[in-house]
Task: structure prediction
Amino acid sequence: MKPDRASIRRARGAKARRDGRGAEVVAALWLMAKGWRVLAFRLPAAQGEIDLLARRGQVLAVVEVKRRRTLEEALAAVSKRQRAGLRAAAAAVAARRPDLAGLAIRLDLVAFGPRGLPRHLPDAWPHDGGGW
Result:
């Protein structure tokens, strides 16, 4: 019996979630190798889920992890609205945690292409008017 469209969509979605979780783990390891301390994975917040929250020195990075064919596609995959939600989520988390008070908060991207090493883009969307 041939699977219906809904079954195909569910299977595709489940695979994408598994691949995304795997990419987040690799991204966390990549950041740790570069001296970052990963504070949280898939941190839920009212404004949106933070893939990774990492700290190095006086910088708190909200890290979005994307697997796409190109870096440009990975950057475009995070909408301006989603970025605003991530920034609001980061501010809410920092406000609740005294150990994070006063840190510079930024929105980073770790992008995975079809092959090769992950690419970390610090402050990937600097012109959003995020108001950090």
Notes: The first strand starts at residue 37 and ends at 43. The beta strands are 37-43, 50-56, 59-67, 104-112, 119-121.
